[in-house]
Amino acid sequence: MIGLTEQFASQIGWKIGKKTVVVEGTTDVGFLAHASILHEQAYGRSILDTDFAIVAAGAGDDGGVDGINRRLNTVRQLADADRDADGAVVHQFVGLYDNDRAGRNALADALKFDRRLKPYTDLFLLHPIMPLRTNLDSELAAEVSRVNHWFSGLDWEIEDLCSSRILEAFERANPRAILSRRAGGGRMHREFARSAKPDLKRFFIDTAVIDDAEGMIRLMQALRSYVGVDHAFIGI
User: Fold this and answer.
1) In DSSP terms, which residues pair with 92 in a beta bridge?
2) In the chain, domain spans
3) N or C: which end of the chain has fewer CB within 10 A?
4) What is the mean pLDDT of residues 192-214?
5) Cβ 29 vs Cβ 54: under 8 Å
6) What's the fold here for domain 4-149+210-227?
7) Which of 9, 20, 14 is nearest to 227 (CA)?
8) Coil, strand, or helix at residue 124?
């Protein structure tokens, strides 16, 4: 019998797993889904599977950080009602925000709205380094802060995970796509015009090889470790 969570997911076009990460938009999903395809081509196994899925909060104005908060509020209530014979929840949902002002504010708002939620357990901000979680009881927030010390104040988005080869080639072809840059700790955040992001995604899909997707593969490996599913098979 299909549960309430699966019914709702089907209605809004989500392909969920046992553990599902909700990101801001369809462009983010496009990047990560293609990185999973590149991994499968190189290593024979997809990173996205029945155990682990990534879905968009929505398209356009239906997505974004507010979309994550809206969707998570709904699906968590449905998932709480969908339990197996032992009383365990069948589906788990977590949220991943871009690490910009909007994302940081949305995370704070979500934690205020539902005090049961925990940062870096239920909700995550994207950072240049997303360390693996080796112990589900460990204090991940402190470790994330420690390893990203050199990037303090640097915004970070999914597009920043493209290789420098991809980003530099795209910029040469689209010099007006980047609104600003900020560097820190040896990393650079590029602020793309909103209209340029789908073009960068298409450029990535058309031209990327496995090395160009390393940052995205590392992110998905880390996310799988955060929600407690196998990640040892991931090759990078």
Assistant:
1) 19
2) 4-149+210-227
3) N
4) 96
5) yes
6) Rossmann fold (3.40.50)
7) 20
8) strand
Q: What is the pLDDT of residues 20-42, one digit of tens each?
A: 999 999 999 999 999 999 999 99
Residue 22 phi, psi (nearest 5): -100, 120
What tokens were used for 182?
Answer: 């900020």
What is the percent of the chain where pLDDT is above 90? 83
How does residue 134 score in pLDDT terms, banded at 50, 70 and 90? Answer: confident
DSSP string, 49-86: SSSEEEEES-SGGGSHHHHHHHHHHHHHHHHHH-B-TT
> Which positions ≥6 away from 52 have C-beta within 8 Å?
17, 18, 19, 20, 21, 220, 223, 224, 227, 229
Of 93, 66, 96, nearest in space to 77 by CA: 93
The C-alpha torsion from 63 through 89 and 136 to 66, rounded to 10°, is 20
Q: What letter does residue 151 receive in the DSSP assignment?
A: G
Question: Which H or E element spans position 200?
Answer: helix 197-207
Of 37, 35, 14, 17, the residue nearest 220 (C-alpha): 35
Q: How far apart are CA 184 and CA 152, in angstroms?
A: 8
C-beta separation of 221 from 47 below 8 A: yes
Residue 59 backbone zone (phi > 0: left; psi -120 to 50: alpha; other: beta): beta
Cβ proximity of 60 and 93 under 8 Å: no
